[in-house]
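Section 3.1: Structural characterization of target chains.
Under the original work plan, the team committed to producing a structural model for every single-chain target entering the pipeline before any wet-lab resources were allocated. The record below documents one such target. The sequence was received from the expression subgroup and is listed exactly as submitted; it comprises 1014 residues.
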Amino acid sequence: MGTSPGQFGLGFPEYGLYPAQYRFRTIRVTASLRASVAGFSLPCSQVPAFREVVEPSRPSALDVALSVVMLLSLLLCLLSLIACVLSQAQIQTFWPAAAPIAVRSPYLNVWQTAISTNDYPISWNGSVLGWVGLIRVDGSTYRWLGNNFDMTGSVGAGCNVTFTEVTPTRTIQTVQAGPMNMTLTFLSPIEPSDWVKQSMPFSYLAVEFASTDGKQHDVQLYSDISAEWVSANKGYVAEWSTNQTDNMVYHAIKLQQARAFDEEYQQAADGTAYYAMSLGYGQSVGWQSCQDTVCYETFYGSGALSSKNDNDTFRAISTDLPVFAFSVDFGSVSGTQSPVVWTVGYVRDPSIEYTLLEDVTTLRPYYTSQYSNAQDVVETFLSDYNDALSRAEALDSQVQSAASNVSSGSQYYNMLSLAARQTFGALDLTTSGGSTRFFMKDIGYSSRVTPVETLYAALPMFLYFNASMVKPFLLPLLEQQNTSYTAQYAARDIGTSYPVVSEPSAEANEGIEQSGNMLIMVLAHATYSSDSTLLQAYYSLLKTWADYLVSNALYPANQLSVDTESTASNSTNLALKGIIGIQAMANISAVLGRDEDAQHYSSVATQYTETWRTLAMPSDSTHIIPTYGDASSAWSLSYNMYAHTLLSLNLLDEKIFTGVTTYYQGLFQSGANYTYGLPLDSDHDTLGSPAWMSLTAAALTDTGVRQQMLSHLWEFASSSVTSAPFASRYSVSNGSYIGGTASPAQGALFAPLVLSGNRLNGSQGPPSTGSSSDSSGKHRTLVAAIVGGVVGGVVGLILIALGALFFYRRRRVRTTAIEPYPSPVLPEKDVDATASPSRLLLLRKHSSPASVTGNTSFIGGTPSSISAPMVTQNAPASVIVLGNPPSVISSDTATSSAPARSVPAPALASPPTPTVYDRSAPTGFAPLSSSSSRPSEPLGAAGSVTVSSPLPSASTGREDPEIQSPDAAPKLSQDRDAELASLRNDMQQLRQELRRVVPVLERLEEPPPDYWSQ
């Protein structure tokens, strides 16, 4: 997925780089062009400009080699620039109707429907939840969460939402607020291996920002929630308090007259809403509870809240709407160094009323097994943000990788992200007397407790994340029906009004559906978790359901289809589920060593399968018809075939799976209006179900057809025809909403993932309740693409210029007068403040027949303490004349305001014998050997560098008397060592200065200690 401009913020406002949209590990990017000159790197900012006086000559071998290298380098630079452009041109391709922003439980289930223009968030059923975010920049206020309908005209316009990404654990938005680019991370952790953390009904909001103009601005941040979080009935009276600990401050809001285990418009009436933030920001943190408009006006007037609870009059939610706010004053900054984090949550303790054998008890949240009060949970959760983010990033990455193995591209991962949030957002995990139980609310349809058909649909997701999670779901279903429950078939749920578990609800017209569901789920749990305890404990109950299927499954009579909500007889899909349930019982019996039962149920299932095949399929076995006796042109989705594959049964042969796969491929190619996928059957030609379509796709034998089916389903998930969260029923022709808002049944989307073998938690056994991850959780930024592109672009331009010089050079250099080049970065060393900047002067050696070094090399160098020839400015400078081997001319430094002495240009003659120096010597270059032959290593080879003696004067043709004097040899060696040491020190300074000027490098991983010395 790409980004739009400003999506990748790296927190470097000086260069218009914005807060991080993605967090990946950084890689080291070197911002200097590694042109080896006497063992040094030549920074790209120091590549000189020069003028040459030329004479005709053929290009040398070195020229050709360098030209080839430059062409290759240019190609790499162009590719780098293209990568940079693509990385900065990210285009949002997934547009869900609503994005989950705080989804952790049935009553902390908050969505953002306007993902392109922020509005007030809502609960899953549409009730408005006041959650506002403001940023004040240089006195102007902008809204980045919620809306400003109730604000005065002095509040700036709403922020532009430039990008929204949804992952299994996070919703990440980038918004533009005047000169500030902001990144909002809504993190709802998924902790499948730590059930204490998973049971905490809290979520995070983290905010980062950076200026887009590279300047510092006076910035304050604000966020609040309203009393609307405690009830959808705005006439109820709320009460609140603000509390402070050593590490945090938090608001707590609840109804003045709470009603235990009661709902109002799908919102609980017995919980406490929390909004908390850390005090780690020091004195800059403020908080206040007040009427919404009062808080807003206080903030945009002064940028700070009063840090007091001055709104003590408890009142109806709709009366002078009370809000509970925080502010942070950053002063004059260009961006955040670390995110500002808030924790929001809704706590219900106890959370489930549970009746068993007429004994009514209350079940508490699972985290109470370790925490005695809600304040401790809030503080623990808030302080765990960095580690929670690291775990979330790792989980998202694992899901994304597994999804890519099932279906190429990001579409399947997009749908899994929504499905995971919805399914986990419908759960309560409880504990009582050492017994752990999961409960699911029938979100999107009713208030039923753990609807069996929905749990069956969501089963693949739990098998993927941690198969051990299935047992706490099945336990209350089994124990409830193992007591006074007298029906011979399985119940459809264990309560009609969440969160009250009253008794199993039995419906005769759902007997085959629910009995088959239960037997399949019990066996799937035992198979994927290697835990058969439920099989042993409830074998008699399971056998009762299996016997019911033996009597009724082959010819289902007057059975309600939970998919179409219509009653029919002889449904082929329903019959197949019943037959698979019978075979599941055979396998259960075999696991427990009940061989006689195993043989009996297996024999029945095999016989029923043969009969079913002749009645449910045409003679060519190409597809499944909806009911016995239908015309051969009728068809239905064969989603119950998935259970056959999931349990590795042998009832259906491969020909059947291949036939239906080919048939569905033909339906997509038929020209019918299946824009958003296939309907449930030909009788209901517009009714679509993401759950059953996912199960069908998982059972197909052809990867291409499976991916095609998932792609059509993605079209619905990414459509904005409706504003409802990802629905479980819709029209396949136009994508319109039919029912099932935010239903946990979407966990079925994980069905292909489970069959692929890429399960997240391969280990079995009890869940971990250990400590937090050791990961630091620090933010990671995608630096490589942007920095690499920028640096590559600069280097590319330089190489283009250098390549042009070599390609167009057709004459030898006779003399070269170099334009003095002032260093824009490196401050002058040991020079008066009034002196001119350092100058870099470079000469190219003349090609002389007497020369033993051959062609000249690339010219480069760094400022050093020698005077420049032919320069009358009062400025220290360096002269480096490079060949193969290179030569360095050393002279005195003009360090005062006196005019620099005129130094004649050196004459070009045969240089003395070169000396090889050890580059690895700790101080300077230690001589290794002397030879009259040319060294075998090329210029810049690792380990050594060849440095020749200085050349004679070019202007007079006479040798320099100081250099040629026999007594000057020791002094010359010392001067060389000193000069080279000075050059290296200057280069080190230049690198340090470069790192200061280009702070991008400071954010990358630190290089090894000896990196800069190489």
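The mean pLDDT is 77.
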